[in-house]
Each structure stands twice: as structure tokens, then as C-alpha cells.
Amino acid sequence: MKRRVIIVSMRLPVTVTVEHGRPTVRPSVGGLATGLRSVYAEDDGVWIGWPGRVEELDAAEERTLREHLAALHTVPVYLTAHETTVFYEGIANGVLWPVFHDRLDQLPLRVHGWDVYEQVNARFADTVARHYHPGDLIWVHDYQLLRVPAILRELLPEARIGFFLHIPFPNPEIFFALPSREWLLRGMLGADLIGFHTWRFRGHFTAAMRRLLHLQPEREEAMYEGRRIQLGVFPMGIDAAGYAERGASPRVLAEVARLRSDRDVRFLVGVDRLDYSKGIERRLLAFERLLQTHPEWSTRVRLVQIAVPSRAGVSAYRRLRERVDGLVGRINGAFGTPRWTPIHYMYRSVSDDLLVALYRAADVMVVTPVRDGMNLVAKEFAASRTDEDGVLVLSEFAGAAEELTDALLVNPYDVDGTAEAMHRALVMPREERHARMRALRRVVQTNDVARWVERFIGALAANGASEER
User: Fold this and answer.
1) CA within 13 Å, CB half, 326
2) pLDDT of res. 468
3) Max CA-CA distance within the chain?
4) What does the radius of gyration of the chain's CA atoms come to, in whole angstroms?
5) DSSP state string for 237-297
6) Is 372 one of the annotated active-site residues of the chain?
7) What's the rounded Cα separation, in Å, for the pair 57 and 76?
8) What is the DSSP-derived secondary structure letter of residue 406?
């Protein structure tokens, strides 16, 4: 018999906006929301998460919102303005995010707010406990909720709890910089199944267990407080069929034709949140180096860089935006001509159709984070290319690099090497481009988001069944 699943994540799979004191609810677009929709919506499951900032709603409108969300199989966990600032911006995005992405230089000199982090995690866990039915599978997601599994274990000792980390688990030497390191680790160990994108991240986690807790985990499991915990590797996929369908749609192809109206200019494309983990600054420097070392590309190539605004309340992101703006201006000023601008930079979100059109228009997709848990942009690019053309330049520090081995893999810290990879991608023969893209598409289509969900839920359910026997 199929078991009901409770999904727990920081955000709900819907976007709630408040205009003139009234809430509007729209489905979110993204890998997690798309992949898990069948799990929570079609099988009588439930998704628990934060609806966003809705503090201005009065009691009547809040009740209306809750009823609307319930009809969508979702349950809100509300945060106060203070909790949003301390828990979400301060601890989750100001401390955990940089540490887990190897950026100790971004840590504040003093860290306050772990009590608020625990308080919010406890509220998520309490909400889960209120909606739990015996036999349910609970799937907790990501770094904002590292303490939820342990709190749930206290509330629901017999529950089957899974946890998936969507970002890297850092090298222990970096993780140990956190004064709260053991407390966070024990939080994750409340789960029965802990999942990671890559073997490397799981290896970092097991090394931290050995050194902090003196446990001796085997490759795929560990014993902790009398429980057997499974440690799995589950690379997340995307809705590959959906991207292929959009990539071949008439409206997207019409947008591609508009983008490629100047057939003499080749396109390099980057699409990222504006985040220091994405390597945008080094990518711009590599593009500058390409123009310096291969002047034959002057007026014949353009880098289209989309930078989606992110975490404007965190000072590190405001400083990053200033640096990127400065780099774009300097490079365009140095190399541009009256008729050619080498970098077309857009600091904004783009529509789904424009995003897929950029994937289809790209001669070269440049995905060069300095550290990334997976990076679904690389997979979306391959899925969209039903023409089996285009070249992917991919950082070896993205989790996707373990699967997408037919990309041109680069070290993003090597600016000269990345510039040469861009050049190689631009001059790559047609036969090689097609062979590489066919191989990339096979991987993305085979290991799509539905397969990722199936593997994780299957492992969590099987783990429980074996212990019940």
C-alpha cells in the first residue's frame, strides 16, 4: 500500500503575494515544486512550509489564505518579522550558506541567533507532528531545517524521517568553524535516511561524524543512538520532458529567432542567481581574457548574463552586485564598439519562455559556480536542446559535474583555463557538439526529477519496512 508523504521545506510550492491587504496564491515553478507535486497533491499528502511575508494580513484574510492553502494540500508555518531577519537572513543565509559553500570569509565576526534558529525549526516540527498519521513518511529538505529531524525524533519516535541536503556538505575542516557544528550534525542524525547530491558530499558528512561524534559509519549507513541511519546519494534531476516540450514550442522558437537576428554574433549564456557561490565575477574575467587572447572574436561573440536578484537584505549580496556592475562596465568600456557590446547584462528575473529561449539560442552555456550542490541550470540547458546542439562549459565544483561528464569541465578558479574552454566550445566541430549533447540529454532524461523522487521515497519506505520486519 502506498504511504502518505509529508514534505517539509523552508518555502511552500506556491508563491503568496499580498496586495492591498489581500493574498494571492500562485503555483511556484521550479524543480522541487514540480518534482514533488505528485507526491503531496495526488496521494493525499501535505507540504509544510513558510508562505513568505504575510504579516500585514488581518485575521479574516489570514483565515482565507489558510483555507486556500489547505485546498492545495499545503500548510503554512508563519514567521514574525524578527524571525525572518534572524533565522532566515541572519543564520540560514548569512552563516550556514557561506560555510556550506566554503566561504568562511563571508562569516560575520560574531554570530547571534541560534536560539531563534532552534525556535523556528521547533515550530516546523510541531506543525509536522500535528498533521502526522501513523505510517506517514516525512521528508525534510535543506539547510534551513537542519534541526527538524532531531526535534521530530523526540516528538515522533516511530516515524520514518528522511532528510535531503540540497547544497554541498562542506569539508569537515570548514564545517568545524561553526561553534554549533555538533548540535547541527545531531539535528540531521534524527533522520532515518540522509540524502546528498554527490559521493563527495556524503564523504564529507561521514568524516564529520567520525571526528565530532567518534562514530564509525560504513559507506552507506551508520549506527546512532541505537538506530540504523542510511546515508544515500541521490543526484536531483529536472522535469526533462517539460523543458524539451517548451524548448520545441513555437513561441520559444520565435523568441530564439528574435534573439539570433544577428547571425554573425555567437552567444555565450550564463543564468544564475546573483550569489557569490555562482562564480559570476570569475566568469566575467574569463570572458575578458577570451577577448584578450583571441581578438578574432571581437564583435563576433557576446556574453548574455542573467543575474536574478537574491537576498538583497544580506550585505554580502549588495557588495557582490556592486562588484559585478563594475566589472561589466569596465569590460564593456574597454572592448565595446559603437555597434557591439560584448556583455549584455540583465539584473532581473526572466520569464520561463525567455529562459528556455536563451537556452536554445546559446552556442555555449557557461555554468561555472565556485561551489554548488547540483546546479539544475546545466540540466535545463541540455533538456531544452531538442536540436542536439550547443556546448556546456561546466565547473568541476558543481554537483552536476559528476553526471554531466560530456560537458567541457573547467576549474572556475583558473581564469585562463576557463577562457580557453570558452574558445574551444566556440570552435568545436558540429559532429562533436552533437555527440556531446546527445550524451548529456540521455543522462538528463534518464535521471529526471521523477526518478529522483522515486529513488528517495523508495529508499525511505524500504528502510522502514526492513526495520519493521
Assistant:
1) 7
2) 47
3) 74
4) 23
5) ---HHHHHHHHTSHHHHHHHHHHT-STTSEEEEEEEES-GGG-HHHHHHHHHHHHHH-GGG
6) yes
7) 14
8) T
Nearest CA to 420 out of 387, 393, 384 is that of 393
**Cell numbers 565530532: residue:** 212
Please give the Cα distance from 19 to 218 (Å, whole number). 53
Run means of pLDDT, 10 residues per run, the chain, 469 residues: 88 84 76 72 84 81 86 92 93 96 92 96 98 96 98 97 98 95 97 97 96 88 94 96 95 94 92 94 98 97 94 80 96 95 95 95 97 96 97 98 98 98 98 98 96 95 61
Asked whether 419 and 297 are in contact (CB, 8 A), the reply is no
Please name each of the domains of the chain with its CATH number.
5-236+450-468 (3.40.50.2000), 240-446 (3.40.50.2000)
Integer Cα distance of 203 and 224 in angstroms: 17
Distance CA 281, CA 324 (A): 6
230 three-state secondary structure? strand
Identify which of 253, 263, 437 has the alpha carbon closest to the alpha carbon of residue 354.
253
Segment 51-56 long-range contacts (CB within 8 Å, at least 24 positions apart): 51/11, 51/12, 51/14, 51/16, 51/76, 51/78, 52/11, 52/15, 52/16, 52/17, 53/18, 53/81, 53/84, 54/16, 54/18, 54/23, 54/78, 55/80, 55/81, 56/18, 56/21
**Which three-class secondary structure state does DSSP give residue 392?**
strand
In the numeric block, which cell numbers belong to residue 347?
539584473
Q: How far is it, in rounded angstroms, from Cα 455 to Cα 461?
A: 10
Question: Which of these is catalytic: 372, 406, 423, 448?
Answer: 372
Among the listed residues 73, 101, 166, 423, the single catalytic one is: 166
Quick one: cell of 427? Answer: 570552435
Residue 274's Cβ-side half-sphere holds a number of Cα atoms within 13 Å equal to 26
Cell representation of residue 69: 492553502
pLDDT of residue 469: 40
Instruction: Examine the residue annotation and report whether 20 is marked as an active-site residue of this protein.
Output: no
Output the pTM of the full model.
0.94
Q: Which has the closest alpha carbon to 160: 3, 349, 338? A: 3
